[in-house]
Specification:
- The complex is a heterodimer of chains A (490) and B (448).
- By secondary structure, chain A is an alpha/beta fold.
- Chain A is built from 18 helices and 10 strands.
- In chain A, the strands form 2 sheets. A 7-stranded mixed beta sheet of chain A has the order 5-4-9-10-8-6-7, with helices on both faces. Chain A has a 3-stranded mixed beta sheet with strand order 1-3-2.
- Chain A starts with 5 loop residues before the first helix and ends with a helix.
- In chain B, a hairpin with a 5-residue loop joins strand 5 and strand 6.
- Chain B folds into 3 domains: 227 residues, no CATH class; 114 residues, no CATH class; 58 residues, Arc Repressor Mutant, subunit A (Orthogonal Bundle).
- In chain B, helix 2 packs antiparallel against helix 3, helix 9 packs antiparallel against helix 10 and helix 12 packs across helix 14.
- Classes of the chains: A alpha/beta (490), B alpha+beta (448).
- At the A-B interface, helix 8, helix 10 and helix 12 of A face loops of B.
- Chain B: Keywords: ATP-binding, Ligase, Nucleotide-binding, Protein biosynthesis, Transferase.
- Chain B: Belongs to the GatB/GatE family. GatB subfamily.
- Chain B: It catalyses: L-glutamyl-tRNA(Gln) + L-glutamine + ATP + H2O = L-glutaminyl-tRNA(Gln) + L-glutamate + ADP + phosphate + H(+); L-aspartyl-tRNA(Asn) + L-glutamine + ATP + H2O = L-asparaginyl-tRNA(Asn) + L-glutamate + ADP + phosphate + 2 H(+).
- Chain B: This is Cytochrome c oxidase assembly factor PET112 homolog.
Chain lengths: 490, 448
């Protein structure tokens, strides 16, 4: 049951083949068994069981809320969840319990979804794994053999998503199949009065039509994406995919996105600048650094000797000292590095040369895509990552900055242009790990993009991972656990 | 998310101050670290504010009665929308700072004036006028003591013909009166420094109320780089006028400048002009009526219910009524005397049922004891003027007969002698005779 698609599970729930509570418990048990993977920061067991119970009541009365009722979901830990700890995987927010739900979380809960818990991410979503700011929904999706969908910027509300780069962040959807992603998108998309950057119109849930005839389609292959570091395997699958479309009658042409090579640097300037701004609020005062039960780590008065005459400037100096100390402790190297870089770019003497310049380059990059789509191309087909997933020990050899520069190469231009994109699993690598390919669509043509991706997915027939069976097979678990604990000790 | 009411308030204020409203304006983040700024940045409009290039006219009274009124103008550089920070309360005794975050994030309107004013009084008057405008518009109650209107003064001195000197910023001013004092003392200080060969530092100073002068605030050490960045969560603010309004636009989602302009309430300068035309009162009285919250309304309510001349009403309201209020430090809406009561009193006075001295007595009694009407008080205290002309003539005659010496004085030309006679008649009639009438009768009798 846990390996089925959303639609299948929903049908099973409606038919009474399984109850929401049973489903929930199976999920919880699997979560417990895979605890060594550290995928969840918080497991909201009580909340989940309660929600499952309520869902069950609704099904019994024949009044289910829809396709998502009783379906277990997990939310990345940079989305605010009311009453449930939200940390962004940072010490800075340890113990922070939001008083409200992010709009997308609320929408899912309103549909009866069952919240299993908050999943792990790189601290403040900086790095290969994160919500989609530079590719961090599509990237891990490709590595894990699932569908990772990034909607058009402005289609889905960011309210309650702890911001990284406000002008590029979007909530990303990870599902087993494209159809499921479409179901969820239908529930999440649309205007949110609490997010001024969302489109004005409401969006109705839709059923993704099944494409049978691709002969009217035009698929673009951006030539600049043929990077020298691209692994032979991925390159070959990319080629095969293009050929597949062609053989079914679609027009497949080479296109050019000439400013692609400037994309990474441009992204870094804008990303770090916005990050520096967004991280300014984490001073250890409002969001208390340190244990919940203990006193806040430092207070101003502890930095100023009692009894000494305290001038305004002394208070200011000691406040700054406190902030600096707190932020040093609360943020890791990656975060601090980006804040420093971002502040550098925003200095008066640098603003014109870095920030403004990067904004201009961003416009050029976005225009590249517009030109290509205006010339008759429906979607672009590119790899998602340079190579298949690397084993952990291999991965940690490079530092974060190099890694993200590499891994984001195919995905971050999409965020800069605000376009929709989806990674669809294609095959397993020589190491037996998944590889995905990316489709990029026109702005706000998310439905059409998913329609094409769904067709492709059907052709590919990528096998769904049966984690439950793996887990049930006791012998392999201890081995996996051992391996995991070795590498995680680092 | 942008607050619609704030934008409307900004447009109204901009229009009232003759500004050009920018149909497109932008929002920026201004970054600095301080305990009362929880986000580490303030959202403001540095690149392109909502309104620019306006003017504020204010009137300064020159000379005594009759005073001349001169109109001066100060240019408005811009009006911008921004967020408020929290409030810092410095507790020197316990070496701690307390932060109140309740107002953090609340919308502010910043009005930036050009350096067109030359002394404390001008500044205070201009600010006062701005307060009245904001109050008339309903965009702010603009009470300085309660921080609803905060004023920072930038002061510099220079020789005529030379460019502007280095300026200092004076903060911590919580009334128009202290604003004037602070500016004047800062001007003095700067002149003194320069004449002694020293330089003026571009610094922030605060006004020390006890010492009556400005002191340096050592808060802002060094130059701050605010690292301005466009606010990514607020798209450019687009405003429309009737011409540019997109057809079929949702009125909830758009703001039409023309629509707002048509609905602007009467501004103080217009009100003053109207009062002068309508009631024939003097400009300085017109000013005074607008200068106190609720006074104009009170005045207009009295006028509605009385037959007395507007000039008389003005005099009573501005001198006697206001005098009593000030004595007991009351606001107009706390007055124990209602407009109806005063109107009734003025009616009695108008038809000469009582003398003006009696009227003042009645007013005092009205003030003291609520619930009694003027008529009640008049009859209680027997203050009615004698209406019997013949009896009055007889009383005058009797007094004249009884005081031949005083009569002689009058005939000899002593101007004060007649007052003695009047006094005697009043005594004889138990103060129930109108002194004017008495005087008139006596003069008649005494003329050859």
């Amino acid at each position: 049951m846990l390996g089925r698609t959303l639609r299948e599970v929903s049908a099973a729930l409606k038919q009474g083949q399984i109850t929401p509570t049973e489903l929930c418990q199976k999920c919880l048990s699997l979560i417990k068994k895979t605890k060594f993977l550290n995928a969840y920061i918080t497991v909201s067991e009580e909340v989940a069981l309660k929600q499952a119970e309520e869902s069950e009541k609704r099904y019994k009365k024949g009044r289910s809320l829809g396709d998502l009722d009783g379906i277990p979901i997990a939310v990345k830990d940079n989305f605010s969840t009311s009453g449930i700890e939200t940390t962004c995987a940072s010490n800075m927010l340890k113990g922070y319990v939001p008083p409200y739900n992010a709009t997308v979380v609320q929408k899912l809960l309103d549909q009866g979804a069952v919240l299993m818990g908050k999943t792990n991410l790189d601290e403040f979503a900086m790095g290969a794994l994160g919500s989609d700011t530079g590719g961090s929904t599509r990237n891990p999706a490709a590595h894990c053999g699932v569908v990772g969908f990034k909607p058009s910027y402005g289609l889905v509300s960011r309210h309650g998503l702890i911001p990284l780069v406000n002008s590029m962040d979007v909530p990303g959807i990870l599902t087993r199949c494209v159809d499921d992603a479409a179901i969820v998108l239908g529930m999440l998309a649309g205007h949110d009065p609490k997010d001024s950057t969302t489109i004005q119109d409401p969006v109705k849930p839709f059923t993704l039509p099944t494409l049978t005839d691709v002969s009217k389609l035009c698929i673009g292959i951006p030539k600049e994406y043929l990077a020298p570091e691209l692994s032979g395997e991925v390159r070959s699958f990319w080629s095969k995919a293009a050929n597949l479309f062609e053989s079914e009658g679609a027009k497949v042409i080479e296109v050019s996105l000439p400013h692609t090579s400037y994309s990474i640097v441009c992204y870094h300037v804008l990303c770090t600048s916005e990050v520096a701004s967004n991280m300014a609020r984490f001073d250890g005062l409002e969001y208390v650094l340190g244990d919940k039960e203990e006193e806040p780590l430092r207070t101003v008065s502890q930095n100023v000797n009692i009894g000494q005459k305290c001038h305004r400037c002394d208070i200011n100096v000691s406040t700054e000292a406190m902030y600096a100390a707190t932020r040093r402790e609360g943020f890791n190297d990656v975060v601090r590095g980006r804040i420093l870089a971002g502040n550098f770019f925003l200095l008066k003497e640098n603003y014109e040369n870095y920030f403004i310049k990067a904004q201009k380059v961003r416009r050029l990059i976005a225009n590249d895509f517009v030109k290509v789509f205006n010339s008759g191309v429906d979607v672009l087909l590119t790899p998602t990552t340079l190579r298949g997933a690397a084993p952990y020990l291999e991965f940690i050899k490079e530092d974060n900055r190099t890694r993200s520069a590499e891994d984001d190469i195919f995905t971050q231009a999409v965020n800069m242009a605000g376009l929709p994109a989806v990674s669809v699993p294609v095959a397993l690598s020589n190491l037996g790990l998944p590889i995905g390919l990316q489709f990029i669509g026109r702005a706000f043509c998310d439905q059409q993009l998913l329609k094409i991706a769904k067709w492709f997915e059907k052709q590919v027939q990528f096998p769904v991972i049966q984690l439950q069976e793996l887990m049930d097979d006791g012998s392999s678990i201890s081995e996996i656990e051992k391996l995991a604990s070795v590498s995680l000790k680092h | 998310v942008l607050n619609r009411r704030c934008v409307e308030a900004a447009v109204m204020t901009g229009l009232a101050l003759n500004c050009r409203i920018n149909k497109k304006s932008l929002f920026d983040r201004k970054h600095y670290f301080y305990a009362d700024l929880p986000a580490g940045y303030q959202i403001t409009q540095q690149r392109l504010p909502i309104a620019v290039n306006g003017s504020l006219a204010y009137s300064v009274c020159v000379g005594k009665k009759p005073s001349r009124v001169i109109t001066k103008t100060v240019r408005i550089k811009q009006i911008q929308l921004e967020q408020d920070s929290g409030k810092s309360l410095h507790d020197e005794l316990r070496s701690q700072t307390l932060i109140d975050l309740n107002r953090a994030g609340v919308g502010l309107l910043e009005v930036v004036l050009e350096p067109d004013m030359s002394c404390g009084e001008e500044a205070a008057t201009a600010v006062r006028e701005l307060q009245l405008i904001l109050q008339a518009l309903g965009t702010s109650r603009a009470n300085m003591a309660e921080g609803q209107l905060r004023v920072d003064a930038n002061v510099s001195v220079h020789h005529p013909g030379e460019p502007l000197g280095v300026r200092t910023e004076v903060k911590n001013l919580n009334s128009a009166k202290f604003l004037a004092k602070a500016i004047d003392s800062e001007i003095e200080r700067q002149i003194h420094e320069l004449e002694n060969g020293r330089e003026i530092l571009n610094e922030t100073r605060s006004f020390d109320y006890k010492l009556g002068c400005t002191m340096p605030m050592r808060d802002k050490e060094g130059k701050q780089d605010y690292r301005f960045m466009p606010e990514p969560n607020l798209p450019p603010l687009l405003l429309y006028d009737t011409e540019s309004l997109p057809p079929g636009a949702d009125p909830q989602q758009v703001i039409n400048i023309d629509w707002i302009r048509e609905r602007l309430p009467e501004l103080p300068s217009e009100t003053r002009e109207r009062l002068i035309q309508q009631y024939g009162i003097l400009p300085e009285h017109s000013f005074a009526l607008l200068n106190e919250v609720g006074l104009l309304e009170f005045f207009q309510n009295v006028i509605k219910e009385t037959r007395a001349e507007p000039k008389k009403v003005t005099s009573w309201v501005l001198n006697i009524f206001l005098g009593f209020l000030k004595q007991q430090n009351l606001a107009v809406n706390e007055s124990p005397v209602t407009p109806s009561a005063l109107a009734e009193l003025l009616n009695l006075l108008d038809r000469k049922a009582i003398s003006s001295t009696a009227a003042k007595q009645v007013f005092e009694e009205l003030w003291r004891s609520e619930g009694k009407t003027p008529s009640q008080i008049v009859s209680e205290k027997q203050l009615e003027l004698m209406q019997d002309q013949e009896a009055l003539e007889r009383a005058c005659h009797t007094v004249m007969e009884g005081h031949p010496q005083v009569v002689m004085d009058v005939k000899r030309g002593n101007p004060r002698a007649i007052n003695k006679l009047i006094g005697l008649v009043r005594k004889a009639t138990l103060s129930r005779a109108d002194p004017t009438a008495i005087k008139e009768i006596l003069e008649r009798k005494l003329s050859p």
